[in-house]
Amino acid sequence: MSKQNKVVENNIEVIAKGRFIWGSPFKIRRVAKLIRGKNILEAKAILKALPHKSSRVLGKLLMSAIANAKNNNKLDEGSLYVKRVLVDEGPRHKRYQPRARGRMYQIVKKTSQLLVGLGTVEGDK
């Protein structure tokens, strides 16, 4: 997971990226929709309560973004909210399984590229 900071018109958006995450973008987007626009505490609670594998991955990425905000930008955790969550498709890994009569069955293992951006409540809302 890498970190980046982006200054947008006197507001700082703190970014954390996760690349080559094993999991379908379709399944990860289901969870990402639930935390978009929420306060940090609400987003943490939602991700902790969900049984999906992608909620654990997004939770780690959210914690990384919070750590970036605290350490790199000296921002208070209470004033942060989830500004944006982007889920894009990554490279696909193709595997093959032997089938009857000498045929092959293709198995596609999908990956995702994630980006979590945090903003401050005073500046944006």
Quick description:
By secondary structure, the protein is of the alpha+beta class.
What does this structure look like?
- The relative contact order is 0.26.
- The chain is α+β, with helices and mostly antiparallel strands and 125 residues long.
- It contains four helices and six strands.
- Helix content is 37%, strand content 41%.
- Strands 1-2-6-3 form a four-stranded antiparallel sheet.
Spatially, the strands of the biggest sheet line up as 1-2-6-3
Which class of secondary structure composition applies to the elements?
Answer: alpha+beta
Q: Strand-residue fraction? A: 35-45%
What's the story with the biggest beta sheet?
4 strands, antiparallel
The outline comes out as elongated
Alpha carbon gyration radius:
17 Å
Count of alpha/pi helices: 4
Helix content: 25-40%
Order of helices and strands: EEHHHEEEEH
Calculate the terminal CA-CA distance, rounded to whole Å.
28 Å
Instruction: Report the strand count.
Output: 6
What oligomeric state best describes the polypeptide chains here? Answer: single chain
The low-pLDDT segments are: none
Mean residue pLDDT: 90
Distinctive features:
single chain, 125 residues, alpha+beta, four-stranded antiparallel β-sheet, 6 strands
Task: Give the helix/strand layout.
Elements: E1 2-8, E2 11-22, H1 25-35, H2 40-49, H3 53-73, E3 80-89, E4 93-98, E5 104-109, E6 111-120, H4 121-124
Antiparallel strand pairs: 1-2, 2-6, 3-6, 4-5
